[in-house]
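User: I'm writing a short report section on ligand binding and want a predicted complex to refer to. Could you take this sequence and adenosine-5'-diphosphate and write out the structure as tokens? A short remark afterwards would be nice.
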Amino acid sequence: MLAVRPALIGGAVLVALTGFVIARFAVTAAAAREAIASLAGEDAPEIADAGPFGGGIWRALLRLTRSWRERALGAEDRLEDAEAVIAAVLDPLILLDGRRRIVGANAAAERFVGSLGARRDLATALRNPALLAAADAVLQGEAERAVDFADAVPQERQLRAHIARLKRPALDGAVAVLTLHDITALKRAEQQRADFIANASHELRTPLASLIGFIETLQGPARDDSEAQERFLAIMHEQAARMTRLVGDLLALSAIELNEHVPPGGRVALAPLLREGAAALELRAGERDMRVVLDLPAELPEIAGNRDELAQVFQNLLDNAIKYGRAGTAITIGAVALDRPPPEGGPPLPFVAVAVRDLGDGIPREHLPRLTERFYRVDTARSRAMGGTGLGLAIVKHVLNHHRGFLEVESISGIGSVFTVFLRQRAEERPAGMSQNRNNAVI
Ligand SMILES: Nc1ncnc2c1ncn2[C@@H]1O[C@H](COP(=O)(O)OP(=O)(O)O)[C@@H](O)[C@H]1O
Ligand SMILES: [Mg+2]
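Assistant: Sure. The structure tokens for the complex follow:
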């Protein structure tokens, strides 16, 4: 029995110890359970008695919870930033999944794809076959593609689409991003440049061909015909002068264009400039029995400008009035200071308006908007016959752009035309109480 007792005691102690350890583990397990449950909760409370093992686990879990929560918040912020960037992109942007369905679009793109409900095939939004083929190529593995296409709705325009694969698929299934850029203005500028070169070459080729023809005649059949030589040389002189005028106008145009973004620095008094311009063309007007009548107020505010460029404006307008006005009539130049809103909108600004008025053929209405295009003429043959280059009004327009002014044309076929130039008054040039009356405009 005695021998059994220590064994019993030992057994009892062992059971008690085991019970204690199990109890401690139970506490640890409960703490762990609570901790795990609290991972999803907002605040994980400190647990007072987490047992000797549980304390460490608990603290580790708490750290893990905090770190995951921070990461989740960081990820949410980054997602919001990315969405804000996409929304801020002005060009339309569309996200596509691997089956060419639209999974996201910014506000600009929603005009093309409509509101984003169920995932729809890109083809329901943009039907252009070349664009869809490019999208398919990228979805099948190509890194990127660009394609130009025309869109007729809501208005005729040229678009360039860029489609690029994302480095890895996004959570919403997006695998490619499609951006659209309106390149209508770019294409138009390209076309205008090409047209301009073609037109300029054509304008030079005609007198050159005629010169070569006359030179060959003078070397051959007219070699000994002094009377013909005289006549041909006069024509050749006129053709060479015509080319000189054309090259002069081209150079003037490109010089003005180069400077167009630098505001002109000088101050110009318009009245003496107009008087000089009228005097310079008096002789030419007289050849057609025409007079230039100046109708200027006693005082005109100065304007900020480049004198030579402005002299060219009035010379070109007067030249046209002499060419296209009826023989024997008067050309009037009027000027007035007035306030009016600029064509781009906004509050009225102080301008000086100068109107050159002729009595003559006038210009049919449909031609008015295009008159300032380079080489645009109502009647090309007539303009050429009168020595015109077709660049006079293009120069006028560019000079006025340079001066932040503008041109208005009013014309009645068979009666005559009024070309009115609006130039900004110098800021410090406005005496108080200067005419505010818009009806004073000489138009
Ligand atoms: N005062 C005017 N009256 C009638 N037509 C005009 C007048 N001014 C310009 N035009 C028309 O506008 C066209 C373009 O003018 P412009 O650029 O000065 O070229 P150009 O005088 O060399 O032909 C002219 O060819 C003419 O058809
Ligand atoms: Mg002209």
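A remark for your report: Residues 316, 320-321, 324, 358, 360-361, 363, 371, 377-379, 383, 388-394, 417 surround adenosine-5'-diphosphate (ligand 1) (CB under 6 Å). The longest strand covers residues 330-340.
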